[in-house]
Amino acid sequence: MELLYRNYDTIYPIMEHCVKSLEATMNDEQCKQLDEQGYLIFKNLLLPSQIEALLARLEELWAEEGDKAGEENYIEPGVRRLANLANKGRIFREVYAQPRVLEVVEAVMGPDMRASMVNARDVLPHTGTQMPFHMDSDKGRVRDEIGYSAATAIWMLDEFTVENGGTAVVPGSHLLGKSPKQVLTDLNASHPDEIIIEGKPGDVFVFNGHCWHAGRPNLTNSHRRALLVHYLRADVPRPENRRQHLDAENAAALSAQDRILLGLDDLQVET
Predict the structure, then answer these.
(1) Residue range 38-262, CATH number
(2) CA-CA distance, 81 to 157, in Å (whole number)?
(3) Residue 41: strand, helix, or coil
(4) What is the tens place of the pLDDT at every residue in 116-148?
């Protein structure tokens, strides 16, 4: 089966890539959408009490870290960020190790995955910050002979709307085998095939990291806060700012499975 993609030559046919495990919760329709469109949205994966607790912890961290908030990854003008959250509270485990999300990530890249970044991002009210179209595969890495190498989960802690700059994604763009830089003349311009992801607090947008996507400006009076968990295939090198760094006490409290997921014992090779 081939996906006919407007304006571009499709490099890769859609593969029956979504293989469900014995404990799978994804249905055939979700597998088809993930394969063809490159994303899924899960509703209400967080309870209101969980959202309240997560927001309280994030605001506490933003107050503590001040102007240095997010520097373990990068600081983004006009946006509040936090990084290395796996080391900043057990509360974040319910996000980066959520079973339904991990099932989607495994369907994208296979079981040998790493949660490389666990971040928070808050696009402030009336902030014109707009991300260019990009992929979350490190350094624009395209699908290789093994397959896809990246996936991302965006956990909505505030409502995502068109007006407040919900994520723009180009469905099916993961099938092109090209990065936006290789195709688009203006990475900041709207794409004719883009859709804006909208959702309520507690919803999760999980997508193949090779999909082209971009953040949009927040034109409202309210914040747009989210948790972002980026997953990479275990064989993909992760530089210092693409890893979780845990202190001894927090690392000792992790299960063996969590240590593997966070890649704490991996031998890292800088590229």
Answers:
(1) 2.60.120.620
(2) 14
(3) strand
(4) 999 999 999 999 778 899 999 867 788 888 999
